[in-house]
Amino acid sequence: MRWENLTDESEHGRTADAALFGADTVATRTFDTPEFNGITFHEVRARSVLNRVPGASRMPFEWTVNPYRGCSHACVYCFARRTHGYLDLDTGIGFDTQIVVKVNAPEVLRRQLASRSWRGDHVAMGTNVDCYQRAEGRYRLMPGIISALTERANPFSVLTKGTLILRDLDLLVRAAEVTEVGVSVSVGFLDTELWRTVEPGTPAPERRLDVVRAFAEHGIGCGVLMAPVIPFLSDHPDRLRETVRAIAAAGAVSVTPLVLHLRPGAREWFTAWLGRHHPHLVRRYERLYAEGAYAPTWYQRRITRQVHELAREYGMGPARAAAARRIRPAGPEPAPAAAEPVQLSLM
């Protein structure tokens, strides 16, 4: 595995000048427990955890923190798969089972936030791999990360498919007393059979909607990123309606659809999965994605229009209103903010 001179080439394509960590900082571990069967953890001491997003990126935020690389959620479409290639690791099963853990992420973040050069910009988490994947149950990096951001009253947001975020509910509420905190859950569809094969390591969609319900019960607005909408498998109007209706019933304040896109690394792994489970769709996908990683604009617009129409019908909107995706402490409504918070995006 290539550790030396590994640079911070994040999901946004930027390459830093300095190595993230050297080979002498790596410890490899396995754990003899059912939830970690077949998974290897590479514990590293990172030199930096704040990743700057380049201006040319489609991402609507400037900074990210990713305490893990690789993800046991094992989503076959995950765009972050190609980042494992930078470590000479397999972007298929290796991405699912070889997890890099930045064990010192909270302390490094605390130091970076205290730097005179840091301007207190919004920090997005869960934008590359899920920070609440199974590894977080053992390594518990997020409480320290949330606390570091809270201490500096630094605005941040979290996107997850993991139910483990409920462990940190109290920390998120306390953070919201001093800064803007956005929480979104990713639920692309409800189909159980599709979920078991395309997102095999994630909690079931209904369990993720339970997270939305729990936040709503605590008076916390939680948005849902309806991602990915998978062409020919979860995009039928009846399925879209079923999913949006369930999202609304869970108490989500917004729903934002995102059509599947297939970057290098993910494209090959997804295509292999498609050939095994839905071989009759392979040619249709070749035509739909013939121009590149993204579905045609007409298709994306159609899905977005359908979901937004359903959202309005069920009393929701897209994630764009100033208060839509922000945790607010109990008490009187504060004055409107001068500017809207950034919109979180998985893809």
**Which word captures the global form?**
globular
Helix content: 25-40%
Determine the N-to-C terminus distance.
27 Å
Query: Major sheet: order of its strands?
Result: 3-4-7-8-9-10-11
Summarize model confidence as the mean pLDDT: 86
Class of secondary structure makeup: alpha/beta
Using only C-alpha atoms, the radius of gyration works out to: 19 Å
The largest pleated sheet is described as: 7 strands, mixed
Structural notes for this entry:
This protein is α/β, with parallel strands linked by helices and 347 residues long. Helices cover 31% and strands 14% of the residues. It has 11 helices and 11 strands. A 7-stranded mixed sheet has the order 3-4-7-8-9-10-11. A 4-stranded mixed sheet has the order 1-2-6-5.
Features:
347 residues; alpha/beta; seven-stranded mixed sheet; four-stranded mixed sheet; globular; disordered N terminus; disordered C terminus
Quick rundown:
With 347 residues, the protein is of the alpha/beta class. It has helices at 93-97, 105-113, 135-139, 142-151, 169-176, 192-198, 205-217, 237-249, 266-277, 282-288, 297-313; strands spanning 27-29, 40-44, 50-52, 63-65, 68-69, 98-102, 123-125, 156-160, 181-186, 223-229, 254-259.
Write the topology of this structure.
Layout: E1 27-29, E2 40-44, E3 50-52, E4 63-65, E5 68-69, H1 93-97, E6 98-102, H2 105-113, E7 123-125, H3 135-139, H4 142-151, E8 156-160, H5 169-176, E9 181-186, H6 192-198, H7 205-217, E10 223-229, H8 237-249, E11 254-259, H9 266-277, H10 282-288, H11 297-313
Parallel strand pairs: 2-6, 4-7, 7-8, 8-9, 9-10, 10-11
Antiparallel strand pairs: 1-2, 3-4, 5-6
Helix pairs in contact: 2-4, 4-5, 8-11
